[in-house]
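Lab notebook, design round three. We kept the backbone fixed and only want residue identities now. Task for the bench partner: fill in a sequence for the structure below.
Input structure tokens:
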């Protein structure tokens, strides 16, 4: 199969990765969505199961307890055991607040973990922000800080299995080829005409064999329009394939030399959230960067309701 232009290939590949994270948080930075998932104990009984049809998370999970949850409950060990959990094996005490660090310090016998899979090799981890409001207010970052072991895992709602990630990438490539000018754009960015046509046909066949080309469903999910062209899920404008390669226009005087944001980005139709594993086929489209920013984590329907109210108020002002 002919290779996609590098920019497009990288964009599709990155859809299988999580959002960025820095050293101040416990999450891994830009890793695959099938990495170890982190589950707060308060949400474990309600949301701790993998997606329907899957026996377990690809790379396991770690349950996080607050120091207060662990140290103020005399029966915590028994409660954890009843849920199949054990501190240092598949659960950790997670320090985020300095007051907890002072009031409920780690036990002397406790260690920081050395693994993301059971047994974890330690009992606690800390990510406490620095403060100038008190003495010894330096940041506290313990556990999962080493170069080869940075971050304990990913946010639960970002999870997607390796198999599902592959299906999503196939469908997202199909949506690229369904842009009204996909062939022309591919040619502009280093593909020969014959290569582009061949890759498009092979992609369509693969999508069909994997049941990823149900156009009625894609239309219902705001991924394509009546003509079968790829659209932005929010504004529903047909997308130009050139937007996959073009960098965002920058405001005059505010230019950044290393801007990497393109005009077209990954778009979750139904937002990712606890209780739903929404990184899956028929829930991912391509959309304008600006439209994606407007929707944020609110979801399309809620955003449209808000926009309708904004328009209504502005109309009254004009009357």
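Proposed sequence:
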């Amino acid at each position: 199969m002919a290779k996609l232009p590098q920019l497009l290939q990288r964009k599709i590949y990155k859809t299988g990765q999580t959002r960025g994270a820095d050293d101040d948080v416990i999450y891994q930075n830009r890793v695959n969505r099938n990495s170890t998932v982190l589950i707060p104990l308060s949400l474990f009984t309600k949301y701790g199961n993998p997606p329907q049809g899957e026996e377990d998370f690809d790379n396991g999970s770690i349950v996080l307890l607050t120091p207060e949850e662990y140290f103020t409950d005399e029966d915590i060990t028994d409660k954890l055991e009843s849920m199949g959990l054990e501190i240092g094996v598949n659960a950790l005490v997670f320090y985020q607040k300095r007051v907890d660090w002072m009031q409920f310090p780690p036990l002397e016998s406790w260690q920081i973990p050395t693994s993301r899979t059971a047994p974890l090799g330690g009992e606690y981890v800390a990510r406490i922000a620095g403060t100038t409001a008190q003495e010894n207010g330096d940041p506290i970052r313990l556990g999962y800080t080493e170069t080869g072991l940075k971050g304990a895992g990913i946010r639960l709602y970002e999870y997607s299995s390796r198999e599902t990630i592959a299906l999503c990438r196939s469908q997202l490539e199909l949506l690229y080829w369904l842009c009204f000018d996909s062939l022309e754009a591919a040619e502009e960015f280093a593909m020969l005409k014959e290569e582009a046509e061949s890759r498009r046909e092979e992609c369509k066949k693969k999508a069909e064999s994997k049941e990823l080309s149900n156009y009625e469903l894609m239309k219902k999910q705001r991924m394509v329009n009546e003509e079968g062209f790829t659209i932005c899920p929010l504004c529903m404008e047909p997308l130009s394939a050139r937007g996959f390669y073009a960098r965002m226009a920058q405001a005059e005087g505010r230019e950044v030399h290393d801007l990497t944001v393109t005009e077209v980005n990954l778009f979750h139709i139904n937002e990712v959230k606890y209780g739903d594993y929404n990184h899956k086929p028929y829930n991912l489209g391509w959309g304008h960067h600006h439209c994606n920013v407007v929707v944020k984590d609110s979801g399309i329907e809620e955003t449209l309701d808000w926009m309708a109210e904004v328009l209504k108020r502005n109309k009254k002002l004009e009357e």
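Keep this in mind before ordering anything: Residues 248-259 have pLDDT under 50 and may be disordered.
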